Amino acid sequence: MIDTLVANAPGWTVETDVVVIGSGIAGLVTALKAAEHGRVLLVTKALLDAGSTRWAQGGIAAALAPEDTPEEHLEDTLVAGVGLCDVEAVRTLVTEGPAAVRRLIELGTHFDLAEDGTVSLTREGGHHRRRIAHAGGDATGAEISRALLAALKHSEGIEVIEHALVLDLIMDRGRAAGVTLHVMGEGQRDGVGAVRAKAVVLATGGLGQVFSATTNPTVSTGDGVALAMRAGAEVTDLEFVQFHPTVMFLGPDATGQQPLISEAVRGEGAHLVDASGTRFMVGRHELAELAPRDVVAKGIMNRMLETGESHMLLDARHLGRRFWEDRFPTILASCRSHGIDPLTEPIPVVPAAHYASGGIRTDRHGHTTLPGLYACGEVACTGVHGANRLASNSLLEGLVFAERIALALRDELEAAAVAQQDAPARALLSAGAVTIRRGGAALSGDLLVAAGRREGTAGLLDPSVHGEIQRIMSAHCGVLRSAEGLATARRELAALAGRTAAGPCVEAWEATNLHLVASAIVAAAGRREETRGSHWREDFPEADDRWLGHLVTRVQGAVLATRFEPSRSYRTTAA
Ligand code: SIN
């Protein structure tokens, strides 16, 4: 197990107070709010608007309707999370959510409005009320992203670096003190560089590219989770990868980012049927097609197994032309671009990897288990999702916890300023005494390269393993899992570890990250011998309350160590 990626020595260094990695809702809100308290450097892997946020269709959930309450939102979230949500984290989410959404509106986000001028709310799976705010019909993420980027343009104190892959954490005396990164561009800050900061916020998004077919964009290669694990941080609940039930079926061998058909289409009345036209979700759950996402994904997979069909169908013809054009223009265009007209024919659908409910373990202020390192959004595990995220809680989580992180950063920056005044020796830190962790020792940047050269590219994987990791994970660690399949995945992933890269490059770093993340998912999925939420074991088909707790994984020396931690503040059923 490597604890840093082999890379050239940093050719440039920049100093800031806070470095935020990622430009989805979590990263942008953190950056905007943190800039009120210090200098911020915002780093993003591609263009500022290329992450998962802009692909979010359905919306953002919050108890905004007069007849709705945070308590009801809490209950729906706990039920979806099947006993593994942290109740206090969920309470934070649902009570702070409505005001946070209103602040998003004040900042310039235009949600769709009802005729009376209030925010128009829809339903999605697992919600007993209409509480999903949406924008542009089905382009909610794109609108939130637009509004936040407009605010970013007018903000002072935020520097942006695009096209930069973050590599590793820089540690100083047990604290995160910055990151190394590789900028894939041209100009002054090109190639490998170092950002030194008083705090690091990871908001790098998801890991869907671990699987062959996913709703995630190509940038979602689990870089944040891998970086945190290499630095020794704890990750948790990684086995709970959510498969979105209704992703357009483009054929059995389709790979890469697949077109999402939002749950909101079912929320507005679309039905799931098999080839014979039977509504197979009716009778499987009281909410039928609007059951929580894991239940619908399992219903679809079960029906596919029962009928031998390669996919199911989403019938939304009865919604009518006008409704389709007004409410789901993006999905309508996407269907038509693939030769499907949802006004006249049902849409072929299958489940595909969509969202990591687990991630880097944090408290309710985004602190990870490493001092100075914060995590926010999909890369984090705050405890709000449990075994299965409730639809449209993800944008809300990114928003609410980013605001909380900004408050924690304010305190941290103030404390750092006081400490600097009190102890002039600490100025050494900003004068170049920053160190990079390697093999448990603290080495300077130059020594890191020397060590890297001595070891060649040991541990850095050849880019060709990327596709193989996806194949292994989809075949053996997808919607339906078993001990046998997971053992095969473990064996095949271990075999890939010997395929080292000829030299450092973006594709090799990404493949190495994917491999670490995939290995950690398989380790946790193998340990959890029950079916719960989005973790479905055909050999252990029932939930087993001996497993009410979390699998916490860490890199320890050469191995991945996974331990079980019994639950603390969880409820198994709704009150
Ligand atoms: C959807 O629109 O169905 C996706 C929303 C989500 O993942 O919460």
From TrEMBL:
Key words of the record: FAD, Flavoprotein, Oxidoreductase, Pyridine nucleotide biosynthesis
Per UniProt, the enzyme's principal EC class comes to: oxidoreductase
Q: Which Pfam families match?
A: FAD_binding_2, Succ_DH_flav_C
Compartmental location: Cytoplasm
Q: Which reaction does it catalyse?
A: L-aspartate + O2 = iminosuccinate + H2O2
Keyword Transmembrane attached = no
Cofactor(s) recorded in Swiss-Prot or TrEMBL: FAD
- Going by the entry's taxonomy, the superkingdom of the source organism is recorded as Bacteria
Stated EC number for the protein is: 1.4.3.16
Q: Which InterPro entries match?
A: FAD-dep_OxRdtase_2_FAD-bd, FAD/NAD-bd_sf, Fum_R/Succ_DH_flav-like_C_sf, Fum_Rdtase/Succ_DH_flav-like_C, NadB, Succ_DH/fumarate_Rdtase_cat_sf
Record's NCBIfam families? nadB, PRK07804.1
The family note in this entry says: Belongs to the FAD-dependent oxidoreductase 2 family. NadB subfamily.
Role description? Catalyzes the oxidation of L-aspartate to iminoaspartate, the first step in the de novo biosynthesis of NAD(+).
- Identification of the protein by name: L-aspartate oxidase
Q: Which organism is it from?
A: Actinocorallia longicatena
**Highest classification ranks of the organism:** Bacteria, Bacillati, Actinomycetota, Actinomycetes, Streptosporangiales
